[in-house]
Design a protein that fits this description.
17 helices
Length: 470
């Protein structure tokens, strides 16, 4: 973040400086009272179960320069060395600050926004890795993609950055509009459209409508870029939502940037083709799953639009670090696990099962699948559909975890999978104990479910059990 004087900070977030020197400098904005230091400004957010104003004195003792507050009476009890800026609502102030700070960036700093039903974080990481081969890039940390994470990530920009790459998430209508209003992206990437968070959007059409809001704010023609998945059934409709240049990527359908000659054998190898230029290059991704090719193609599209050559793009893709708990390979005592436990929806579940079908394995394949959340009236149908696909992807055993995931088991048996190869359990602990009995050296095990289940605990139990053996 570019340093700001308190009077500048107050102007940007529409605050009143009620204590402190106007020329005092702020170097960083934070909402975490435990991770503050000298030169930092604390924004005292409030929520249903927390109030940042309770930690104002702690913030002062840690040496923070200032705090943005909505309760000045309470804040005035803090040590006087802490400057105070008063606002009506601290979250609104954070949004105003990020929005106005983004406007301070020069036109040479271009912003990329990534959304979609699945693959957002991985695609964001791949884009940042590609662009980083030539440019000075800042990216959103982790998957901080909501109404708090996005403004905080925007405030990490400074004028020296050529690109900022930000992930935008949503689970209610209207949220993408709020986030794009802050980010004002030059480049928009939509990974795919599916039944993710559909409980609040009604159906896939509602998801597409919400995600497509990103495309409407992009600059016109050559100044803006929309990157779309040509193999996604919503592609044609999405491209009508923008006046920006549209670049499509794909494997099955015609696209501006395509993958061909795909080979999957522990990692992924493919030929990246630029259709109009008749250029191509071989890319090898150190990850699992055909779906990762789409993420790589979208990153390549952004890099190509930015003027990068194929050698640079290939280096960026092949050197990328893939996010934790997203198709993360872990080998314990000869058992190959895929830790894909960060979250789950229908699109990502089916992609993971396709990965199981296509990945070679010396032993047996086992799928451990947990609940998918926020599906509303689609809950039963979606889980049964995933179960039917599991029955057809070559797994020797299917273990489901959670109440809704029992429907996955029922869907698998209904699709012809023998019932003695399907187990329905309630918790990650039960699944971990079962897996210790079930998995042998040479086996290949997928673990995937929604974040609330914390299925990655199974791996820790598996490690502990192995360590305890004589």
């Amino acid at each position: 973040m570019e340093t700001l004087r308190l009077e500048q900070l107050a102007e940007l977030c529409d605050a009143r400086l009620i204590r402190g020197e106007p020329n005092r400098v702020v170097e960083r904005i934070s909402i975490d009272s435990r991770a503050l230091g000298r030169g930092d400004c604390f924004v005292a957010l409030r929520g249903p179960h927390f109030d940042g104003h309770e930690f104002i004195s702690d913030v002062a003792r840690l040496g923070a320069s200032a705090a943005v507050v909505s309760n000045p009476t309470r804040a005035m009890n803090s040590p006087s060395a802490l400057s105070l800026l008063q606002v009506q609502d601290t979250l609104t102030a954070l949004h105003k600050l990020a929005t106005n700070y983004r406007r301070l960036m020069p036109p040479t700093t271009r912003l990329v926004a990534v959304t979609g039903s699945s693959g957002k974080t991985t695609t964001k990481e791949l884009i940042a890795s590609v662009l980083g081969e030539r440019f000075n890039v800042v990216e959103s940390s982790g998957n901080n993609n909501n109404h708090i994470g996005v403004p905080l990530n925007l405030l990490r920009l400074d004028p020296a950055h050529d690109f900022g790459v930000f992930e935008l998430g949503t689970n209610h209508p209207g949220e993408i509009a709020v986030l794009t209003g802050m980010v004002r992206p030059d480049i928009g990437v939509i990974t795919n459209i599916g039944l993710g968070h559909v409980e609040f959007f009604g159906d896939e059409s509602g998801v597409a409508k919400e995600k497509g809001t990103l495309l409407e704010v992009l600059p016109r023609n050559g100044d803006g870029l929309a990157v779309l998945n040509a193999d996604d059934k919503w592609c044609a409709e999405l491209r009508t939502r923008t006046n920006a240049t549209v670049v499509t990527v794909g494997i099955e359908n015609f696209a501006d940037i395509r993958a061909s000659d795909i080979k999957i054998n522990g990692d992924i190898k493919f030929r990246l083709n630029i259709a109009k230029k008749r250029e191509d290059i071989i890319v090898r991704l150190k990850t699992l799953g055909r779906h990762q090719i789409y993420n790589a193609l979208q990153a390549a599209a952004v890099g190509y639009f930015a003027g990068m050559d194929l050698d640079e793009i290939c280096l960026g893709l092949e050197s990328a670090q893939f996010p934790h708990m997203r198709m993360e390979p872990v080998t314990i005592h000869g058992v190959r696990f895929v830790n894909d436990c960060y979250n789950a929806n229908v699109v990502s579940m089916k992609a993971a099962l396709q990965m199981m079908r296509e990945t070679p394995c010396a032993g047996r394949k086992v799928a451990v699948l947990g609940d998918m959340l926020e599906l509303g009236e689609w809950t039963e149908r979606a889980h049964r559909d995933v179960g039917a696909m599991a029955a057809d992807c070559g797994v020797a055993f299917l273990v489901t975890v959670g109440e809704s995931a029992r429907l996955i088991a029922q869907g698998a048996v209904g699709a012809g999978m023998e019932s003695h190869r399907v187990l329905s359990l309630a918790t990650a602990e039960e699944a971990g104990a079962t897996l210790r009995e079930l998995a042998h050296e040479g086996d290949f095990v997928l673990i995937k479910g929604s974040r609330r289940l914390q299925l990655e605990r199974m791996l820790e139990e598996f490690k502990s059990d192995i360590a305890a053996l004589p």
